[in-house]
Structures are given as structure tokens and as C-alpha cells.
Amino acid sequence: MTTFSSQNEEKNPLKKWVVLLSVLSLLFLSTTLYFGFFAKPVFNQQFIQTIEEKENLQSELDALLLEHDKIKQEYGDLSDQLTEKDSLILANAEEIKRLINSQGDYRKIKKQLARLQNIAQEYVTEIDQLYTENKRLKEENTQVKTQLAESKVESA
């Protein structure tokens, strides 16, 4: 009789392990099913929203850089005088691209983009001022040349 009770005690700890593993397996299965069916749409929506924000930021940056290049081509040699601003704009654009690609903080990217837009606006203002000054100087130069030619004709 003692052998039967000792065998029963040996099976009893084994039963405890089987029950414990069954409960853990059931818990794992239910957690997997929950996240597989119910939590997945939330993650997908967040992922899609993040991708849309990234694409919007990238398109804003691309538009700003395109406008910058267009202005540089339009004003040609005047833009050579503003190389410092130009390099600052390009450096900020690279920083924004890096932040966008690394899934950086949306607010930080927007702040950088706004700063870049301000720098670009200052760039345009300075180019306009240079263009206006250049035009005025050309007109003044033409007047001086005309007056010089007239005075040479009068003195001759």
C-alpha cells in the first residue's frame, strides 16, 4: 500500500506542472488573439497617420526647396552674394530630412520647417533688395555715362 501512495504523490507534482503550463498557454493564446484582432486596427491607424504626416512634411520641404532653387535661378548672380544664407537653408533642409527619415518628433520637425521658411523669406527679401539696388545703380551708371558723353560733346 505504501508504494501506491508514493506513486500517487509523484504524479501529483506532475499534474501541477501540467495545469500551470495549460493555464499559461491559454493566457498566451488569449493575449495573442486579442492583440491580433482588436489592437491591430489602432496600430494600423497610428502607423498610417504617421506615414501621412511624414509625407506632408516631406512635400512641404520639397516645395520650399523647389521655390528656393527657382529663386536662385531667377536672380542668378545676385544669389552668389548670399551664399551664407543659401548654405544655412540647405543645412536646415538636410536636418529636417534626417528628422523625417528617423521618425523624429513631429513638433520639432514643424518648428524646424517654420524656421527654414523664415530663413527662406529673409533670403528672398535680401535678394529683392539687392536686385532693386543693382537696378538703381545700373540706371545711375547709365545717367553718368550719358552726362559724361554729353559733356565731352559740349567741350569738343
Quick gist of this model?
With 156 residues, the chain is mostly helical.
The helix/strand class is mainly alpha
- The amount of helix comes to over 70%
Rg (C-alpha, Å): 37 Å
Average the pLDDT over all residues and give the rounded result: 78
Encode the helix/strand succession as letters.
HHHH
Q: What would you call the shape? A: rod-shaped
Report on the structure:
The protein has one domain. Helix 1 packs parallel to helix 4 and helix 3 (83-101) packs antiparallel against helix 4 (106-155). The model has no long low-confidence stretch (mean pLDDT 78). It is an all-alpha fold and 156 residues long. It contains four helices and no strands.
Features:
156 residues; mainly alpha
Topology (SSEs and partners):
Blueprint: H1 2-75, H2 77-80, H3 83-101, H4 106-155
Helix pairs in contact: 1-3, 1-4, 3-4
